[in-house]
Hints:
Elements: H1 2-18, E1 22-25, H2 27-33, H3 35-73, H4 80-133, E2 138-141, E3 154-156, H5 158-165
Parallel strand pairs: 1-2, 1-3
Helix pairs in contact: 3-4, 4-5
Amino acid sequence: MFKKLLLALAVVLPLSAFAQKFGTVDTEAILTAMPETTTARQQLDEASKKYEAEYQKLNEELNKLYTDFQAIQNDKETPDAIKDRRMQEIQDKGQKVEQFRQQATQDLQRQNEQLMAPILQKITEAIKSVGQEGSFTFIFPNEPSLLLYQGTDVTDVTPLVKTKLGIK
Length: 168
């Protein structure tokens, strides 16, 4: 009985391996082609420009403080307490500028994640749908840097996913 089961497995397993379908998908091409991506990038660009303008303004204020300090730095009539206070103002402003830069970077990253998450989810769902409809065993990202070898029996499902998403 056990030998018959092993024989059946030995015959069925190789046949089931040949029945598997593999696909690849170029998610970057799909992401680029989606109108939602263009809208998200425009929103991020607008936010980035606002942050850059504010950062530039803060840097100009810092440079003005530094220029003013340089004017009194070598003046022997200006008390050291005033010089020290001005230097402290420069240091404080520099720290605030750096904090603003860090917060702006973090906020832009957060906005990017929030805007791109539904788009990436939509792509993932379309890939799963194509995989189920086409009875694919696996669909891999088509990234040439990761592929060591791709046989001729692998299907590029990128056009199918684009059709599923309604993009050309």
